[in-house]
Amino acid sequence: MITIVDYGLGNIQAFTNIYKRLDIPVSVASTPDDLAKADKIILPGVGSFDWAMASLDNSGMRECLDDLVLNQGRPVIGICVGMQMMAKRSDEGTLPGLGWIEAEVKRFNPTDQDGNRILLPHMGWNDVTPLDTEDLFREVKDARFYFLHSYFFLPFNQEEILAITEYQGQRFASAVRSGAIYGVQFHPEKSHQWGITLLKNFAEL
Predict the structure, then answer these.
(1) CA angle 169-47-193, nearest 5°?
(2) Is 64 designated active site?
(3) Where are the beta strands (DSSP E) in 36-190?
(4) Mean pLDDT of the chain
(5) Residue tagged active-site, from 80, 92, 122, 160
(6) 8 A C-beta contact, residue 79 and residue 47
(7) What pLDDT digit, counting tens, does each position of 86-137 carry?
(8) Structural domains counted in the chain
(9) Annotated catalytic residue, options 92, 122, 149, 187
(10) pLDDT grade, residue 10 (50/70/90)?
(11) Assign residue 145 a region: left if phi > 0, alpha if psi is -120 to 50, beta otherwise?
(12) What is residue 142's predicted lDDT score, i.e. its pLDDT?
């Protein structure tokens, strides 16, 4: 069962619709009891880092989520801010992150190497270059995904980078993996067939 964490943020219905079309069992969790039934977990996220962390804490599901991921090893994928929440901290806020991955979230440099102003947020379609095509990116050809963010995920261990993307001269990790913990900076639920294939791959891990 794929379970989407509903703590008030994220495109819940879009994920649900995709999995229903794929005929893959899906549920939405808004309580710890709902969440405890999950085989695999999607942690979506939109908006600011601190708002997302506070919303998750206020949902009452934080303790159950930590237990499922850290102690029981349930596969999880964080989407956009949901990925950033997995880090230890973020330049965007003051609250600590979940700390599931040794990483921090950094703001894009405001200018490029020539001093030209960078357009932020990074919004729209961009190429994604997988470094591993055995799991999430299996059969994802010529990968292009939809992005909307001004901050990027910086893992301390470079071997945890699963895919990279370049935006106006700045390269960043657009997907990461640490054990059964996955994160993607883009929005697969808005990325047509590329996103559908990636979400199907996650369900089949």
Answers:
(1) 65
(2) no
(3) 40-43, 76-79, 89-90, 103-107, 122-127, 129-130, 144-149, 151-155, 161-167, 170-178, 181-184
(4) 96
(5) 80
(6) no
(7) 999 999 999 999 999 999 999 999 887 777 898 999 999 999 999 999 899 9
(8) 1
(9) 187
(10) confident
(11) beta
(12) 94
Enter the tokens of residue 83. 């990925």
Does 189 qualify as catalytic in the annotation? Answer: yes
User: Structure tokens of 118?
Assistant: 């960078």
Q: Which amino acid is at 82?
A: G
Domain around 140: 2-203
The confidence score (pLDDT) of residue 181 equals 98
Cis previous bond, 188, omega within 30:
no
Domain of 171, CATH number, reads: 3.40.50.880
Q: What local confidence, expressed as pLDDT, does residue 111 receive?
A: 85
80: annotated active-site residue: yes
174 token code pair: 């657009």
3-state class of 142 per DSSP? coil
pLDDT at 110: 86
Choose, from 63, 92, 189, 192, the residue flagged as catalytic. Answer: 189
